[in-house]
């Protein structure tokens, strides 16, 4: 056995054809070897059959040059061995046998060619080259076929693993191919769809659009187009992956990108089939989640998240459409503006969570009062708007407003807290009260504020006279701002009397506005408006300074030490710098903290009790005392009252007014007196106007009173004169107290 790897370029041996030369005649074998050695072949020789079989088992050969007559076996037997074991190699038989049977036997066994000895040099080389060329082509074809098979497997895997539905339709719209994703998303197997028309999966309402996109033939760059279609799920197959998440109902939104497949000559129409137009290739992508997200975003953009009602933007759109329709049909429509009365009190008292629950319950009640075509929207806060289209007459709108008032007057249960509210409702009617959206809303708003001004809990239609009132409010706000700048505000004082001695023991300060045109205005005429328009903070700042200035004047006049009570707005207490402002004012004017008493309402105790306790404790540490004003009118809590640093309780005048018989029984008055006595607190009764009231209060233990029975509010100068007159009458006067109320 001999092997020869020819010299030449450094190429791996596997790149050279490997030939096995088999002949038992050494001279012929050597001659054959020399003839082929310069041809860049890898040559291996064998002198007998067993040696040839050993080489065939040892390595792979491309070509075997085989002599039929060998000492131990015939060449036919070697070929049988090759065929039996599936050894892939070509065989060229070289034999000196002149019988035809030897050649036929070799060719039957798959020999590439049969050369009779002696053969010519050129004949041998040409036969070997042809055999190897055929071999190379076969190997190349096999590699190509293998690559094609692998590629097909890969693309089949990619197509079936695609998150999209991939399909082809013939020119008649029947499925010719569809991947496995159709089963996962729609529940249809490939067998159920192949050969079926695409309409089997398209939603009935989208069939016309599908017909257009699938039947239209376009060429070149315009062949691709997209359309959104809803596809039906197969209700019989419910086990598809992702179907439960993607298709919660029986319809699915699909973004469909289709590409028309056509021949180059562009043949179309009924003869397209014979011209070779195969149909359409398409990709269907599931966009159900995206569509739902878009719908959710769009919904949230036009709806109030808390109440799930249309918001201001959507309401204006619907009102605009209703106005257009009313104009076309020459009918009326009503716009209503609803503001919940007492909502702020509930929100401040019970907290924003309970306030939100109240808004949700109120929205449901209002919605139940409306027709299907009416629109209820939340403008913001506790304000709602309603449009009532196709109004027959104003009585219809009035009836809806009365239903609103009736349903809102029923108690609301907020997790055990029973709350009562009402509403102020303004109504504007198209076209008499306005023809534009903004006019109707503005006039309904003005009518609503008119109801609030008249005591709330009612409804009113807009009329032109209300516009003058609205303008007056704007003018009032501007004038009040100027009043702060021009020094038009002034403190008045109403003395407090010890009925046992008839002596003045304190006073309550009341704010007055010296209006340039309207004269002297009481606090009740402008402070509620100031609270609504954000003016309480600057007014409270002014009042704190006025309080200290008055005390300074009194102290400089040599009067007695006076303690003034500052009636504190909840907004002012909530401001974080209140304590610093108080301490700064006292330092700036040289006022002792013991001369100041801060009055709070019971609602402050409930609104944010821990914060209020912290703020008031700071004041007490500074030396300022604390009083509760209008006791018994708010959401009082004895637990909070016990925790707060309270020194004085003031009985509200609403309870005092109920006293008509000095021998009568008035349990609320008696209860408040008992609380003050039990907690060791000072007690003051407000609004005492009759001798009967004074005698009843004195008889039951309340001896400090104020009211018109004794003194009306007076300026600081007048009050000083009164105190001086009292000092002359009673030289040994006790310390007086002045309570200042905004």
TrEMBL record:
PROSITE patterns: EAL, GGDEF, PAS, RESPONSE_REGULATORY. GO terms for molecular function: catalytic activity. Residues 151-222 form the PAS domain. Coiled coil: none annotated. The keyword Phosphoprotein applies. Residues 473-727 form the EAL domain. Residues 18-132 form the Response regulatory domain. The keyword Amino-acid biosynthesis does not apply. One of its GO terms (biological process) is phosphorelay signal transduction system. Residues 331-464 form the GGDEF domain. The modification 4-aspartylphosphate is found at residue 67. Keywords: Phosphoprotein. InterPro entries: Biofilm_reg_signaling, CheY-like_superfamily, EAL_dom, EAL_sf, GGDEF_dom, Nucleotide_cyclase, PAS, PAS-like_dom_sf. This is EAL domain-containing protein. It comes from Pseudoduganella buxea.
């Amino acid at each position: 056995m001999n092997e020869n790897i020819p010299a030449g370029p450094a190429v791996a041996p596997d790149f050279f054809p490997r030939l096995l030369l088999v002949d038992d005649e050494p001279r012929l074998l050597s001659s054959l070897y020399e003839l082929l050695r310069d041809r860049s072949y890898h040559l291996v020789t064998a002198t007998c059959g067993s040696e040839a079989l050993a080489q065939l088992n040892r390595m792979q050969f491309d070509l075997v040059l085989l002599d039929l007559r060998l000492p131990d076996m015939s060449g036919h037997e070697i070929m049988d061995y090759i065929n039996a074991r599936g050894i892939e190699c070509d065989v060229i038989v070289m034999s000196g046998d002149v019988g035809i049977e030897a050649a036929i036997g070799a060719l039957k066994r798959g020999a590439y060619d049969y050369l009779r000895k002696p053969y010519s040099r050129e004949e041998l080389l040409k036969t070997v080259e042809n055999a190897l060329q055929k071999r190379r082509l076969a190997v190349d074809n096999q590699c190509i076929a293998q690559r094609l098979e692998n590629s097909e497997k890969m693309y089949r895997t990619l197509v079936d693993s695609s998150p999209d539905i991939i399909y082809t339709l013939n020119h008649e719209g029947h499925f010719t191919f569809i991947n496995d994703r159709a089963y996962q998303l729609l529940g249809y197997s490939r067998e159920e769809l192949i050969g079926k028309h695409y309409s089997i999966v398209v939603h009935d309402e989208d069939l016309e659009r599908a017909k257009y996109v699938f039947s239209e033939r376009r060429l070149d760059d315009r062949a691709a187009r997209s359309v959104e279609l809803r596809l039906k799920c197969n209700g019989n197959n419910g086990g598809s992956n992702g179907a439960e998440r993607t298709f919660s109902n029986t319809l699915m939104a699909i973004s469909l990108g289709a590409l028309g497949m056509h021949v180059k000559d562009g043949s179309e129409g009924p003869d397209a089939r014979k011209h070779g137009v195969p149909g359409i290739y398409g990709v269907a992508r599931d966009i159900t989640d995206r569509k739902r997200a878009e719908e959710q975003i769009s919904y949230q953009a036009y709806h109030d998240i808390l109440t799930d009602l249309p918001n201001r933007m959507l309401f204006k759109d619907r009102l605009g459409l209703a106005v257009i329709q009313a104009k076309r049909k020459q009918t009326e429509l009503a716009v209503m503006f609803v503001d919940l009365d007492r909502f702020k009190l509930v929100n401040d008292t019970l907290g924003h969570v309970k306030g939100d629950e109240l808004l949700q319950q109120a929205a449901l009640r209002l919605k139940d009062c409306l027709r299907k075509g009416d629109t209820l929207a939340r403008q913001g806060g506790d304000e709602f708007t309603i449009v009532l289209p196709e109004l027959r007459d104003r009585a219809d709108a009035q009836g809806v407003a009365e239903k609103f008032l009736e349903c809102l007057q029923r108690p609301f249960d907020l997790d055990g807290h029973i709350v009562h509210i009402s509403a102020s409702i303004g109504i504007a009617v198209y076209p008499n009260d306005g023809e534009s959206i903004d006019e109707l809303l503005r006039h309904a708003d003005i009518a609503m504020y008119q109801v609030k001004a008249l005591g709330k809990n009612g409804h009113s239609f807009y009329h032109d006279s209300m516009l003058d009132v609205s303008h007056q409010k704007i003018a009032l706000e501007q004038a009040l701002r100027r009043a702060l700048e021009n020094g038009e505000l002034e403190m008045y004082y109403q003395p407090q009397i010890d009925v046992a001695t008839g002596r003045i023991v304190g006073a309550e300060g009341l704010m007055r506005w010296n209006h340039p045109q309207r004269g002297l205005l009481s606090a009740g005429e402008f402070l509620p408006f100031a609270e609504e328009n954000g003016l309480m903070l600057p007014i409270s700042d002014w009042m704190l300074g006025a309080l200290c200035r008055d005390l300074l004047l009194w102290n400089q006049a040599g009067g007695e030490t006076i303690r003034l009570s500052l009636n504190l707005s909840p907004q002012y207490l909530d401001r974080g710098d209140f304590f610093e402002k108080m301490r700064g004012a006292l330092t700036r004017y040289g006022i002792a903290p013991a001369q100041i008493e801060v009055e709070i309402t019971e609602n402050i105790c409930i609104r944010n009790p821990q914060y209020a306790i912290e703020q008031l404790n700071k004041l007490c540490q500074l030396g300022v005392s604390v009083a509760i004003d209008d006791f018994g009118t708010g959401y009082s809590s004895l637990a909070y009252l016990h925790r707060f640093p309270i020194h004085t309780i003031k009985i509200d005048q609403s309870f005092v007014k109920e006293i008509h018989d000095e021998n009568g029984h008035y349990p609320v008055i008696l209860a408040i007196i008992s609380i003050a006595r039990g907690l060791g607190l000072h007690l003051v009764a407000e609004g005492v106007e009759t001798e009967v009231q004074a005698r009843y209060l004195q008889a039951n233990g309340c001896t400090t009173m104020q009211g018109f029975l004794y003194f009306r509010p007076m300026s600081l100068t007048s009050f000083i004169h009164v105190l001086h007159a009292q000092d002359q009458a009673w030289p040994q006067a006790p310390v007086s107290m002045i309570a200042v109320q905004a």
